[in-house]
TrEMBL record:
Residues bearing a lipid moiety (S-diacylglycerol cysteine): 19
Cellular compartment(s): Membrane
Positions of transmembrane segments: none
Keywords attached to this entry: Lipoprotein, Membrane, Palmitate, Signal
Annotated GO CC locations: membrane
Keyword match Membrane: yes
Protein name from the UniProt record: Lipoprotein
UniProt main location, coarse: membrane
The species this protein was found in: Cerasibacillus quisquiliarum
Domain of life according to the entry: Bacteria
Membrane topology according to the record: Lipid-anchor
Family: Belongs to the nlpA lipoprotein family.
Length: 287
């Protein structure tokens, strides 16, 4: 009888020890480090997201880039785990041209594009032959030209599509001199042009209020803006990675939405596209 009781005692101890070990393993998860490429990390958005992720045992390291090409190249080459700097149209064009397998896994924000000027206060003040600067990357160049068309300044060809260029302007009554250039240069040339179309994020970095300062800007309330919704992107092989999807979930929460508004002076706002919407727009942009 005594031997049996000793045996039970040993089994009980071993069982409790095993339970204790299981609890420790479950509760002491090691931090997963995730490198995210960004095109500017000022403001409260990223520090807040890093803080939220840390509570989920995710350590976010931000890698900053100064142009729009390197973050995708770095992601494709494995130097990054994710990037967050581009809209769906830009990513679609990059994938189409490069053949790299990069996909969006979550929508982040929409940042309406605006026309800025140091010389005039309304598009009606533009004169014949005035110079207008626009971004030169295919997606944003086409977007800028559509903005000029919406403003009533030019007419685009029927087959303009999502990635048209100035050669597809069918009517230009003021004979405006439209000058494509690197997006980062568009605010710097304002003293030398009548107006410049500046991406929302770059405008904010240059000290403008994207909500108040443009003399004309995109309407951001309908589906036509979906190609220009920014995204978190990963390599195709990582599209179902639970850690990366958790970061998407954290990004789309209310406190990040408020941080976006404060960081951009209400010039940008959070957009939550469904996975189906995201994929549909992305597939269209790759055609």
């Amino acid at each position: 009888m005594r031997k049996f009781l000793v045996f039970l005692s040993i089994v009980s101890v071993l069982f409790l020890a095993a339970c204790s070990e299981d609890g420790k393993a479950e509760d002491s998860g090691e931090k997963v480090k995730v490198k995210i490429g960004v095109n500017g990390a000022d403001g409260e958005l990223w520090p807040k997201l890093k803080e939220k992720a840390a509570k989920e045992n995710i350590e976010i390291e931000l890698i900053e880039f100064q142009d729009y090409t390197l973050p995708n190249n770095a992601l494709a080459q494995g130097d990054l785990d994710m990037n967050a700097f581009q809209h769906i149209a830009f990513l679609g064009q990059y994938v189409k041209e490069s053949g790299e397998d990069i996909v969006p896994i979550g929508s982040t924000m929409l940042a309406p594009m605006g026309l800025y000027s140091e010389k005039i206060e309304d598009v009606s003040e533009l004169k014949k032959g005035d110079k207008i600067a626009i971004p030169d990357d295919p997606a944003n160049q086409a977007r800028a030209l559509r903005l000029l068309e919406t403003a009533g300044l030019i007419t685009l060809a029927d087959d303009f599509g999502m990635f048209g260029d100035p050669s597809q302007i069918s009517d230009n009554p003021l004979n405006l001199d439209i000058i494509p250039m690197t997006a980062q240069q568009t605010p710097r040339v304002l003293p030398d042009v009548a107006a410049s179309i500046i991406n929302n994020g770059i405008a904010g970095q240059a000290g403008f209020s994207p909500n108040e300062d443009p003399i004309f800007k995109e309407e951001a309330t309908d589906e036509s803006t979906h190609p220009y919704v920014n995204v978190l992107a990963v390599r195709g092989e990582d599209k179902d990675n639970e850690t990366y999807l958790k970061i998407v979930e954290l990004y789309q929460e209310a406190d990040i939405e408020e941080a976006i508004k404060r960081d951009t002076n209400d010039g940008a706002f959070l957009v939550k596209l469904t996975p189906e919407q995201l994929n549909d727009v992305f597939q269209e942009m790759k055609k």
